[in-house]
């Protein structure tokens, strides 16, 4: 590969994603192989990968108008080149459309796809000429078509969101999910205050503001070329604001014993330790040993103490932990991840209704296996970075039917008044990017085990 070619790098990553890779990991690895690449080209490669994956439904709808055969019959490498070209033509102001076509055709040639260059050239040139005539579905007359083809939701998700949220709200959510998430940091309060860190950021030339809800969150609005200050000293953790709310809902206090059941990579474990002023005993479990190591590394970097880690598959009871020995348990469960579609855009093309069922069963099993560890009177928080009913309220209802000694708590009286709009009418957290300042979509509910049972 020409080390300096952002389009070829994006193409390689998109091909890896097609074969089952994760966009963020593949992109990081590809960029790491090109240390000399110009920062603007790195930016373009990143935008092309995320943009094509986030807007694939829209790009395909446009391409289909100008392609003589069905897109499903086009060879996948050629289709990815077409999507890359179409993204530049339709969505990128900084690349003149004819240059985008030329670059795409040249890339096809370099990839040994000489025979497809005429096909690619013809479709992309027709797209430039016919862009204004693309019959985008009208949001009012065809809300489902608009969600699918205008806002790039797969059909099953478009139907689900339309049924649950209505046309306008579903469109606003889909639009937010097709955009870029804000870049947020949690200030490590074991090191100092948010105000101090905001000052450090400003002194290093970055522009940042406090997050609206999370008291230790910072949102970067313009990043300078300089690295973020305080990295090696553990001043911050990159974390979305919605994710920062969860440790607050758990409410750990100094002296308590806490279980973080699905802890890796440890964003919430280290937050719990910080909120308990490093004076709680935290047990952090996760299925994967290599991910458990990330929790350990994070705890070291941030100066968190009192965290014990262990790899464990929580579809089996953790017999090494004493029943009733935890004041608070957090189950930040593996889930379909539909609340973080912006960060993992490939998910929307991979998940289906079957995955949701499978995740819900896994979540139920994990909840069952930690329930006995909560002490009488203790707290269990169940959180997810998704928004399906099956994984949230339905998993919870089944759990409560099996475990009648737990009851849900309304989170509204337990949290600051300014957070009221983050909760549903049962007092569960439901954050949404289009309603709550760009936050990821999270769900969280807090349960309490009855006293004396
Ligand atoms: C949403 S992530 C947790 C994120 C973490 N709490 C944080 O804030 O950094 C869910 C985690 O559950 C773990 N997991 C998946 N299946 C599991 C199982 N059977 N037992 C324990 N952990 C599991 C995954 O490895 C993943 O790290």
UniProtKB/TrEMBL annotation:
Active site positions, chain numbering: 385
Organism: Desulfuromonas versatilis
GO annotation (BP), single: methylation
Annotated PANTHER family: NOL1_NOP2_SUN FAMILY PROTEIN _ ANTITERMINATION NUSB DOMAIN-CONTAINING PROTEIN, NOP2 YEAST -RELATED NOL1/NOP2/FMU SUN DOMAIN-CONTAINING
Protein family: Belongs to the class I-like SAM-binding methyltransferase superfamily. RsmB/NOP family.
Record's protein name: 16S rRNA (cytosine(967)-C(5))-methyltransferase
Domain SAM-dependent MTase RsmB/NOP-type per the UniProt entry, residue ranges: 173-450
Subcellular location: Cytoplasm
PROSITE patterns linked to this entry: NOL1_NOP2_SUN, SAM_MT_RSMB_NOP
Record-linked InterPro entries: MeTrfase_RsmB-F_NOP2_cat (IPR049560), MeTrfase_RsmB-F_NOP2_dom (IPR001678), NusB-like_sf (IPR035926), NusB_RsmB_TIM44 (IPR006027), RCMT (IPR023267), rRNA_ssu_MeTfrase_B (IPR004573), RsmB-like_ferredoxin (IPR054728), RsmB/NOL1/NOP2-like_CS (IPR018314)
């Amino acid at each position: 590969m020409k080390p300096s070619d952002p389009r070829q790098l994006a193409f390689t990553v998109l091909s890896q994603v097609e074969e089952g890779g994760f966009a963020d990991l593949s992109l990081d690895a590809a960029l790491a192989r090109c240390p000399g690449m110009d920062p603007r080209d790195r930016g373009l490669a990143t935008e092309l990968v995320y943009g094509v994956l986030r807007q694939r439904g829209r790009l395909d709808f446009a391409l289909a108008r100008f392609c003589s055969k069905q897109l499903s019959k086009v060879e996948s490498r050629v289709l990815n080149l077409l999507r890359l070209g179409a993204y530049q033509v339709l969505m990128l102001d900084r690349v003149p459309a004819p240059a985008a076509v030329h670059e795409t055709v040249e890339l096809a040639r370099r990839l040994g796809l000489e025979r497809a260059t005429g096909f690619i050239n013809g479709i992309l040139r027709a797209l430039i000429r016919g862009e204004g005539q693309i019959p985008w579905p009208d949001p009012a007359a065809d809300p489902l078509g608009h969600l699918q083809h205008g806002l790039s939701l797969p059909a099953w998700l478009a139907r689900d969101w339309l049924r649950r949220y209505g046309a306008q709200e579903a469109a606003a959510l889909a639009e937010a999910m097709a955009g870029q998430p804000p870049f947020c940091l949690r200030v490590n309060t074991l090191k100092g205050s948010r105000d101090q860190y905001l000052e450090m950021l400003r002194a290093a030339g970055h522009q940042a503001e406090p997050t609206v809800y999370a008291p230790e969150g910072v949102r970067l609005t313009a990043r300078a070329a300089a690295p973020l200050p305080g990295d090696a000293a553990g001043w911050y953790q990159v974390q979305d604001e919605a994710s920062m709310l969860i440790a607050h809902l758990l409410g750990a206090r100094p002296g308590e014993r806490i279980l973080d059941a699905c802890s890796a990579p440890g964003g919430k474990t280290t937050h719990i330790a910080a909120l308990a002023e490093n004076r709680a005993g935290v047990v952090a479990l996760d299925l994967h040993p290599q991910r458990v190591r990330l929790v350990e590394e994070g705890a070291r970097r941030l100066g968190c103490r009192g965290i014990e880690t262990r790899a464990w598959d929580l579809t089996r009871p953790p017999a090494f932990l004493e029943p009733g020995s935890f004041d608070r348990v957090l189950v930040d469960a593996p889930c379909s991840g539909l609340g973080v579609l912006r960060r993992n855009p490939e998910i929307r093309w991979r998940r289906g209704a079957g995955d949701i069922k499978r995740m819900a069963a896994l979540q139920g099993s994990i909840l069952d296996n930690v329930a006995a560890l909560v002490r009488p009177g203790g707290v269990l928080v169940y959180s997810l970075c998704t928004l399906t009913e099956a994984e949230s309220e339905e998993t919870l209802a089944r759990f409560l039917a099996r475990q009648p000694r737990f009851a849900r708590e309304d989170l509204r009286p337990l949290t600051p008044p300014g957070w009221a709009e983050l909760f549903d009418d049962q007092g569960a957290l439901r954050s949404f990017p289009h309603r709550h300042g760009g936050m990821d979509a999270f769900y969280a509910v807090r349960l309490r085990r009855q006293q004396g049972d």
